[in-house]
Amino acid sequence: MAVMSVDLRESWWIRDVEIPTRLVLAPMAGVSVQAFRRQGRRFGAGLVCSEMVSCAGIEHRNEKTLGYLRVASDEHPLAIQIFGSEPRTMAEAARMVEAAGADLVDINFGCPVRKVTKTGAGATLLDEPARAAAIVEAVANAVDVPVSVKMRRGLRDGSRTALEVGPQLVDAGAATLTLHPRSAQQMYTGTADHSLTAELVSLVDVPVIASGDITSQARAQSVLATTGAAAVMVGRGAQGNPWALREIVDGAGGEPMREEVVAELVLFIRETVRELGERRASGFLKKFYGWYLGRGRFPRPFKQELVVLGSTEEVERRLLAAAPGALRLLEQLEAELPAGDDVLLDLPISIYGGG
Length: 355
Ligand SMILES: Cc1cc2nc3c(=O)[nH]c(=O)nc-3n(C[C@H](O)[C@H](O)[C@H](O)COP(=O)(O)O)c2cc1C
What we know:
alpha/beta; single chain; two-stranded antiparallel sheet; eight-stranded parallel β-sheet; 355 residues; binds flavin mononucleotide; globular
């Protein structure tokens, strides 16, 4: 079937928030740190999203949780995603998210992981539409920024629950819905069935974002044209591969040169160390080495070499030795970024509960 081509560089709106492109970077737990989101914006994502943040963690002022609420000046527009099962605590968490500077509060009704679903949060809420709607309503009443909801198709394979629940969530105040049309049972197996996305689009009068298996401009174009979604969301395709984002929005690209890969990875390492500290960052970063250096870009043993090194400084040195031309690119990249100290906005003191 011939499909009409959509300009992915066109802006669109979620209520009064302008999203400059039709590409959204997916929230991914253990991935969507600030460095990932800032990089996503640089490579063409019009909207970026934090990983899911526990509303209980926010309520208890857990220090690590509060760290997820740090917003950089060059991330906007940015959604911060919260998960939980109680309307009151979700509303309170949403207020903190808004105070931290998020442009949107996103609610997670999609997480299939047992640790989350057993607390009554994430995808299980799709089977409790009244509670899900009560959460959306409480959150929408608590904040001035628009509220978005991200969901799966339902809990079990073949489920169409999202089509029943989605319109109820819009009535409750959701300004946009993101659908990842796999069941929770499927986790990440099989394929995302975007015929459900098309059905959801026809049922609601808010913009819908299509998530699942979008890795190229051709696929993005086909999903936008066949579903009527306002935007596509990209997750796994962007892991260690911001160039995929550029290809999706601009059609430009092809494989980056080794020097570019190393420059982006070293920048990512430096920023992540600044954000998480050396100890947390060095464990967190290991999976990224494989993501960046795989795809035939470097021989496999090179990654193995990096993951056993003792510090991120050693990793950086080894990377720059493997692609010396990267240093100049890295300096250029760093010169173009806002200075570190300008980026991390302090959280309002009230967020720490005064101490
Ligand atoms: C490692 C990982 C972590 C994820 N964490 C979240 C999350 O915190 N919140 C959420 O709504 N979805 C999460 N997702 C789902 C993604 O946002 C996205 O919907 C899904 O991966 C399908 O898109 P893709 O095929 O482009 O990866 C996660 C996915 C992955 C692979």
